[in-house]
Amino acid sequence: MNTRVFLTIDTEFTIGGAFRDPDRRRPVGARSVRCPTREGQAGLGFVLDTLEDHGLRATFFIETLQTAWFGDGPMGAIAADIRARGHDAQLHLHPVWTWFDAPAWRARLADGRPNDDADGRSPAELIAWIRRGQSAFSRWGLPPPVALRTGNLRADRSVYQAMAACGLCIASNVGRGLHEPRDPALRLDAGIHRIGGVLELPVLSYAERALPGRPRAKCLTVAGASFAETRFLLERAHEAGAPAVVLLTHCHEFARGDPAGELRPNPTSQRRLRALCRYLATARRRFRVSTLGELAQERPAPAAAAALSVPARLAWPRMIANRLADIGCPGC
Q: In the CATH scheme, what architecture does the domain 3-326 have?
């Protein structure tokens, strides 16, 4: 049996410090996804080219509530580029953008704090946001979404209730390395799980054993794991008979700098994605790179997955490489 691998890319704009300094800062749109540099697009363009070079398709979770600030144009053009390259487009929601629904959003900051959590909301509120997202997909000429990822991987039972009410059948809302759900039934590391009529595929969470004491929980991401760590986890997942592995990344992880200012490529992250795609393209007997849109057509049975961990011998080189990149080491 091969293990299905889902390469998922959260495609979202940034608030850009507008809530912290509303008089001088503004949200940043397409630049925060495309990441233009002197060498070309270090973000979306790089990701699309790399996937295409290796014959792989990915699922792009496209954030829609940012239309409260930007309107349809900027993300609509990005969505069109993604679909034109043959990739899967699904729904992503960051509720914090609804703060801009109020014309007096600046004044509201004096008395309130924007909330980006999808958990702790009423089903009615969640349904309204999902409907807004579905409407945006329609205006952009995209196929209706069948999957949802909530911002910051925060979810509770109400999220799945709202998804079912809106006809969404696939979720990837859980990532224990980023957020531990309050509901014990949602504390899922990997696999395929049925929650209220919706299939949940968590972003793979694993234990990092780099330091003595309690292991650190992490989500599998390009920015947070070296290629050696990712390959180790994929191989251990396959050996354990895991039905699926979900990896998370963002377009902006492949660039460095201020999205509102000058950007440059991030060679560390770019090397990792190239190496991962090259590996998956040559290991098709063990791994099947798929999309959540394809999964929705198949409706597989739920299947659990074994807990995984990364040893210190693999974690330490990545920690050093990331630190060198943070301090501006040339080529890092």
A: Alpha-Beta Barrel (3.20)
Q: Which of 179, 173, 183 is nearest to 203 (CA)?
A: 173
Give the Cα separation of 270 and 273 in Å (integer). Answer: 5
pTM of the model: 0.95
Supply 115's token pair.
């909330």
Sign of CA dihedral 65, 36, 56, 305: negative
Helices (H), the chain: 31-34, 44-53, 67-70, 73-84, 105-108, 123-139, 157-165, 227-239, 267-281, 292-298, 312-326
- What does the block give as tokens for 208? 């990092």
| CA angle (264 as vertex; 259, 268 as ends), nearest 5 | 110
Number of H helices, E strands in the chain: 11, 16
Tell me how far apart the alpha carbons of residues 42 and 268 are, in angstroms, rounded to a whole number. Answer: 12
Phi, psi angle pair for 41, to nearest 5°: -75, 115
How confident is the prediction along the chain (332 residues), in pLDDT tens digits per residue? 799 999 999 999 999 999 999 999 999 999 999 999 999 999 999 999 999 999 999 999 999 999 999 999 999 999 999 999 999 999 999 999 999 999 999 999 998 899 999 999 999 999 999 999 999 999 999 999 999 999 999 999 999 999 999 999 999 999 999 999 999 999 999 999 999 999 999 999 999 876 666 788 999 999 999 999 999 999 999 999 999 999 999 999 999 999 999 999 999 999 999 999 999 999 999 999 999 999 999 989 999 888 999 887 787 677 777 677 666 655 65
- Strand ranges (E), 190-259: 193-195, 198-200, 205-209, 216-219, 244-250, 255-257
Q: How many CA atoms lie within 13 A of 106 on its CB side?
A: 7
What does the block give as tokens for 104? Answer: 């007096």
Sketch the domain layout of the chain as residue ranges. Answer: 3-326
User: What one-character DSSP code corresponds to residue 252?
Assistant: G
Task: Say which amino acid occupies 256.
Answer: R
Q: What angle do CA 25, 21, 323 make, to 5 degrees?
A: 80
